[in-house]
Amino acid sequence: MVGEEEFEVSVGDSVIIPANIPQRITNLSDTDDLEFYCHCSPRFMPEVYENLENN
Questions:
Q1: Among residues 5, 13, 38, 46, which one has the fewest Cβ atoms lying within 10 Å of its Cβ?
Q2: Which positions of the chain have pLDDT values less than 70?
Q3: Is 2 helix (H, G, I), strand (E, B) or coil?
Q4: Are 25 and 36 in contact (CB under 8 A)?
């Protein structure tokens, strides 16, 4: 989910997430592990992270 829009992605897909837009990554598979890579510029700041699973 990026903002209010949901995407289902597969191996090799890319998603661009604009700055200051909430996003959520969810593994929909019951059998496969989720593996993703995130490139952030400027760098990721842990103090702005909000765990949406707790909301």
A1: 46
A2: 54-55
A3: strand
A4: yes
